[in-house]
Amino acid sequence: MPIKTIIEPFRIKSVEPIHWTTRAQRETLLRAAHYNLFLLHSNDVLIDLLTDSGTGAMSTHQWAGIMEGDESYAGSPSFDRFKRSVQDITGYTHVLPTHQGRAAERLLFNVMCKKGDLVPNNTHFDTTRANVEITGAEAVDLVYPEARSPETILPFKGNMDVAALESLIARVGREKIPLVMLTVTNNSGGGQPVSMANAKEVSAVCKAQGIPLYFDACRFAENAWFIKQREPEYQNHTPKQIAQEMFALGDGCTMSAKKDGMANIGGFLCTNDDVLARQEKDLLILTEGYPTYGGLAGRDLEAIAIGLQESLDEDYLRYRIASTAYLGDHIAAEGVPIVQPPGGHAIYLDAAAFLPHIPQDQFPGVALAAELYLEGGIRSVEIGSLMFAAAAKMELVRLAIPRRTYTQSHIDYVVEIILEVWRRRTQIKGLKLTYEAPYLRHFTAHLEPVG
Ligand code: F0G
Fold it and tell me: In sequence order, what are the residues at sequence separation of 6 or more whose Cβ sits closer than 8 angstroms to the Cβ of residue 383?
């Protein structure tokens, strides 16, 4: 009989204590944080599912690589190793290191966009949207209409609506669209994958119109695993072959190495365009650093070079995707509404269905996230009306799983806490805003309970 249990493909060499608080302490802490979990101290959090970004554990191989880091200002061999690793997977000509993903976005959109332009994406992440909009361009989300219904089970809910892309181009004209982006996996839309078939269609439309296609590649390895599992013609491909094939459909990418780079910091921007690369490098030098380190230490470049390859390991990806599904399946089995099917890096609670008595303008997602903290010291993040204001299509609470960090018993605890909150959901109240910043307001907003 084949063995069914999927185990963590590692053993633990170094441990980090986590911190318990009492419910009374959490009530005080939450009030002091203005009901915004970003404003908590992480020492007051027991299980931190705020993000999978930069929060994962590095391997012994990566830690060894860190000691090999060469900290030369220019021409560091660490950069060569970094560049080789990135190019091995992406095949792109120019590789610019950046301190994280949003720095790559800023360089890309500054060079490519101007006021009045439109940038289509399946779904822009919050920093991506903000970096497009600060140039005066408009960020347009064109995800499949079915993806907006949380309960619909489809294999590739991250796909772009190709017909909508074509009609947008026909309506506004090709010259208004400096680039098209495809986010793999689609974080803000539930961590859902994009199929190779869809990427090929998007690429064909872009090529026919002469519009460059860029990937927001943060979770490219998880996306490749979903393709291997769900697109029959790829079942015998390695995740790396799949990633290589997908990158070859585009002209470049932005990347946060804090996700599938398996590092605690870092990112990069790639392009095949020599002219753009030169402009991007000039901006990089102005704000990030010399092009062989781009705001990172040489040791960070080493960690990323190794981490990118580790993220494509089949044993790792099998465990990674299974452990996310484990959380989703156990709460969904008890009736908890989640975005189906479970995504790659996170489970998304459907707060609108979880708390139907809380209207959208009272932030059901923020209220649910606050309750999970009160009940069990779990930190999650709202992806809904607080994060996206009027652009919000759903009211979600994301439970993002850091890579290689928590064990199954941690997740069993999270399941228990969510089910407890689910049982007393009718008592949960909405919130109102008492302070908001002009952009990316969710990071610093203050709220208080209504009534
Ligand atoms: N694109 C996507 C799809 C992302 O998920 C993120 C970050 C970024 C770009 C920006 O990268 O943080 O390195 O500047 N997402 C994190 C998250 C923060 O929690 O989902 P960054």
Answer: 188, 348, 365, 394, 396, 397, 398
Confidence of residue 290 (pLDDT cuts 50, 70, 90): very high
Q: What pLDDT, in 10s, does the model give residues 160-200?
A: 999 999 999 999 999 999 999 999 999 888 899 999 999 99
* CATH code at position 420: 3.90.1150.10
Ligand 1, atom 11, residue with closest C-alpha: 101
Cα torsion 29, 31, 34, 39 to 10°: value is 0
Is 127 touching ligand 1 by the criterion CB < 6 Å? yes
Ligand 1 neighbour 102 (Cβ under 6 A): yes
Q: Identify the domain containing residue 384 by its residue range.
A: 23-52+313-449
**Residue 425 CA to ligand 1 centre (angstroms):** 30
257 with 295, same domain: the answer is yes
User: Measuring from atom 12 of ligand 1, which residue has the nearest CA?
Assistant: 101
Question: Which of 26-35, 161-170, 437-446 has the least mean pLDDT?
Answer: 437-446
Listed residues 258, 293, 310: the one ending a domain: 310
Q: Are residues 86 and 209 in the same domain?
A: yes
